[in-house]
Amino acid sequence: MLVFTIRRIIQAIPVIFGVSILVFLMMHLVPGDPAQVIAGEAASQQTIDQIRERLGLNDPIPMQYLQFVTNAIQGDIGTSIRTGQPVADEVFSRFWVTLELTVYSMILSTFIGLIAGIISAVRHYTVTDVVVMIIALFGLSMPNFWLGLMLIQFFSINLGIFPVSGWGTPEQIVLPVIALGTAGAAIIARMTRSSMLEVIGQDYIRTARAKGVKERIVIYKHALKNAMIPVVTVIGLEFGTLLTGAVLTETVFSINGLGRFVVESITARDFPAVQGSVLVIALIFILVNLLVDLSYRFLNKRIDLN
Predict the structure, then answer these.
(1) HEC string of 260-299?
(2) Is residue 13 situated within a structural domain?
(3) Which part of the chain is the ABC transmembrane type-1 domain (predicted)?
(4) What is the mean pLDDT of the chain?
(5) Mean pLDDT across the stretch 69-94?
(6) Beta bridge partners of residue 79, listed in sequence order
(7) Gap between the Cα atoms of 124 and 238, Å rounded
(8) The model's pTM
(9) How far apart are CA 188 and CA 109, in angstroms?
């Protein structure tokens, strides 16, 4: 397992470089001049040129990227053009809020998705199965920003139960987590149902039932454990989806997280802030995928990771 982990970390290095190159080039292709944004609309061309020189924006693009990579390897992901603060401080001060939102949403998605998928699989081709899958289809079809707006309208404005915006108190957490986690729950439910149906049809499940093993033990001990590998894969992918999907959710609920910071930085053409934020998100996504791969071994001892 140690050899597998080291190999995956080495394989992640070119992925990180690829992400950094892609984001770097995309930010330079976006119309607009960050020096103009900083100086203001009424600034003279001389002032704008001085700002561009100070920020190193007059250097050739390959030279700018090389400088960014060199500093990033040393732990310096730049200074925000917009705020003048180190990007690392700006990112990590907001990162924990986004991580909390993502983790809470992932827990909700997994809990609801597993229960709904198991119920649907056990009662397959019944009214219950159809109803659960229809609800899952609706959950999958609703954009999280639209669902967030509907939740605000109904529970905050009409009923006054939950606050409209913010993050920190239990009341402020409920609506953003539901808005972000609903689509993930639908995907996990559909995958759990599909995987469970495949396992339930296996000979060893029929043998366990023929021996008189209780149905609850057959489902949760034998069937679910062997059906979890594809489900865990989806959960890992959904974590990355939720992490990036938090951008819209944080904007809708005015949460001061990393996603909102990225949106504001893109608007201000803040190259270092966007590059540093995306780099951190990519690292987290790679780490989660590594943990998912390692979990296969615990779910099935016969899987050889090496």
Answers:
(1) HHHHHHHHCCCHHHHHHHHHHHHHHHHHHHHHHHHHHHHH
(2) yes
(3) 95-292
(4) 83
(5) 81
(6) 86
(7) 25
(8) 0.80
(9) 7
